[in-house]
Amino acid sequence: MSDERPYVSFKEVKEKIPLPDVLEALGIADNFRQSGDALVGCCPFHKHGPRPNANQFRMDDRKGGLWLWKCFSPDCDGAGGDVIEFVKRHENLSDSHVRFWFADHFADRLTCSKKPQKRSRGTPKGAKKEARPVRLTPERAEASTQSKEIPCEPADIKPLRFRLSVDPDVPYLRDRGVTQETAARFGLGLSRRRGMFQGYLAIPVFRYPRDRDENPIAYLGRWPGEDFDDADRPRYKFPADFPKSRFLYGLNEALADTKEDEPLILVEGCFSVFRLMQADIPGAVASFGASLSDAQAALLLASGRSVILMYDGDEAGYAGMRKAAGKLITGTLVRAIKLPDGRQPDDLSDDELRSLLRR
Ligand SMILES: [Zn+2]
User: Fold this and answer.
1) What is the DSSP string of 195-239?
2) How many A from CA of 9 to the centre of ligand 1?
């Protein structure tokens, strides 16, 4: 029985999951503050009197990149440990259950397998050695009777259990003409907290329909400038398991802003969605690139709207529009707007956008 359970290596957890990300996942990140290289605050584990000491609990990653914590209050009797011990204490979990917890919260960064250390030796050359990182729930792992190393199947998409706190006042957004109002509506902002998105513009992606106060299903990161090469950072960060082909960015807003007889406008990226909205042209949704997946096409068709295609003015955009039109044409009215070569919706003026749409 026990070896049917998802196995997440503690070693891998310690190496890949920093404590600040765990604090975010637990929703307690705001209880701690940065002090030099460390995060400090009140101890989350012992009971506090009326005047808790806000310096008694300390976390840092000095030790070779591994995050450690320690409570300096006598109430905790010198307790301390690593990221795993933190979650065990905070959530009151056993060793095996804490593995579920990490598999569930950080599936995109961890390798899940069904059996401990059952890495096959002598893998043929060119074969995948790495287990595919996937989201795994205990129920699924137990329901499966296969004893193969992988695959953990992707579970249904659920909102994240945490929300990044972000700063909407980002010079990069101003440079790209994104207003504070737009940033607030879409929840955009700079993530300053240590973790995967530190220093990145975090763009939350929500499912449709979105419940009020629901957390995003994922964040996308965009380096807030064009100096990503100099800074040696990827321009975009996508969580490894984010199924972007199943979402249309901005669909909640697009449907809320348009009437039933109005079209949806399909663009490639988030910034084109912002641009059209700010030009008072409602109804834009983005497919995260110049390719409309079958699932995205089904979402568009399910809306019952006609669709205007407005991908970027380049070969990928033109080819993507032809394919997208093929997927939509039997189900709704489709119109493609070919942008001038080298242009994309987010660098067109209001007038240019309007005149293209009017034609
Ligand atoms: Zn304590």
Assistant:
1) STTTTSEEEEE--SSPPTTPPPSEEEEE-SSS-TTTTT--SEE--
2) 27
Structure tokens at 340: 């001038």
79 CA from centroid of ligand 1 (Å):
7
> Is residue 53 helix, strand or coil?
coil
Query: How much distance in Å is there from the Cα of 54 to the middle of ligand 1?
Result: 11
CA 74 to ligand 1 centroid distance, Å: 7
Do the domain assignments include residue 160? no
Is 112 domain-assigned? yes
Q: Distance, CA 313 to ligand 1 centroid (Å)?
A: 58
> Tell me, what CATH number does 39's domain have?
3.90.580.10
128 inside domain: no
pLDDT tens figures, 176-194:
999 999 999 999 999 988 7
Q: Domain holding 312: CATH number?
A: 3.40.1360.10
Mean pLDDT of 113-138: 42
pLDDT digits (tens, 9 = 90+) for 213-256: 888 999 999 999 998 888 888 888 888 778 888 899 999 999 99
Nearest alpha carbon to residue 7 among 128, 96, 140, 133 = 96
Sheet with 189-191: strands ordered across = 166-167, 189-191, 201-205, 218-222, 236-237
Whether residue 89 lies inside any domain: the answer is yes
Ligand 1 center–CA 100 separation, angstroms: 25
Q: Is the pLDDT confidence value at 125 over 80? A: no
Long-range contacts of 49-54 (CB under 8 A, 24+ apart): none
